[in-house]
Amino acid sequence: MDEVEVVIAHSERATLRVGDVFLKVDADQARIDAEAEAISLAPVPTPEILWRKPHVLATAALTGTTLGRLGGPSTGSSGAWAAAGAAIRKLHDAPLPSRTGQAGRSIVTLAAKLDKECGLLVMNGVLPADLVTRNRQVADAALRPWTPAFTHGDLQIAHVFVDGDEVTGIIDWSEAGRGDALYDLATFTLGHEEHLDDLIAGYGTDIDLAVIHAWWSLRSLLIVRWLSEHGFDPFEPGCEVDVLRARM
C-alpha cells in the first residue's frame, strides 16, 4: 500500500502525496477555487485536476523533476531555465484572469505592509537594523506602476517541473491572478541569481534588473517572520536572509 507523504504543511494549508495523487487541503476555500480556475485558464502545462471537494483539491502527479529549491543547488541546465522563461512569458502574455493575485497588491498597501514588517523585524531583534534599512531602500524600486499580467503569484523553482529542457508542468496556483510580471521572475530566481540571465534569455524581452533585485529584497523582508513562526528556517544557507545579505 502507498504511504502518505507530507509534502508541506503549516497552519494554513497542507499538501499530501498518495501514490500519483496530490491532495491540497486549504483552510481557505477561496484559494482552492482560485487554484482550480487558474489551472483551467493558464496556457502552460499544469497538473490534471482529478476532483475537487470542500477544502480539498486532488491533482495528478507531473512527469519530470523540479529545477531545485530555495537554499539548495539548481539541478536544471541553462536550457531548462530558458525553457522555464519561455513558459513564464507565455503565461504573462495570456488574457488576464478576473482575480487580482498575490503579485497584484496595490503600491500603497504593499508599502504600508513593508514598513510595518521592517519595524517588527528590527523591534523584535529578528534582523539587524542596517540589514533591514538597506533592503528597504532596495525594495523601493518595486513600488512603481506596472502593467497587469497573468501571474502565478508563488512561482518558486520547486513549483516548475522539467524533463530535460522541456517544461512538463507548473503547480500551486492558489495565488494566481492579475499582477506584476517581474514579481514572478524575481520569485523564480530568488536565491539563484546565477540563472537570471538564462531565464531572461528564454523570456525574450528586456528586464529592469533593479526591479528584480527590489522584489528579492521586498519578498524576503515580508516573509522572514512568517517562515520563522511556521516551522521554516529563513536563516539556512541560500535562503531569504542570505538573499537580504547579498544586497549589502
Structural class: alpha+beta
The CATH topology label is: Aminoglycoside 3'-phosphotransferase, Chain: A, domain 2
Provide the β-strand percentage band: 15-25%
Whole-angstrom Rg = 18 Å
CATH class membership = Alpha Beta
Q: Spell out the CATH superfamily.
A: Aminoglycoside phosphotransferase (APH), C-terminal lobe
Question: Tally of extended strands?
Answer: 10
User: Tally the helices: what do you get?
Assistant: 8
Mean pLDDT: 92
Summarize the structure.
By secondary structure, the chain is α+β, with helices and mostly antiparallel strands.
How would you summarize the topology of this molecule?
Layout: E1 4-9, E2 13-18, E3 21-26, H1 29-41, E4 49-53, E5 56-60, E6 65-66, H2 78-92, H3 107-123, H4 129-139, E7 148-151, E8 160-163, E9 166-170, E10 177-180, H5 181-189, H6 196-203, H7 209-229, H8 240-245
Antiparallel strand pairs: 1-2, 2-3, 3-5, 4-5, 6-8, 7-10, 8-9
Helix pairs in contact: 2-6, 3-4, 3-7, 4-7, 5-7
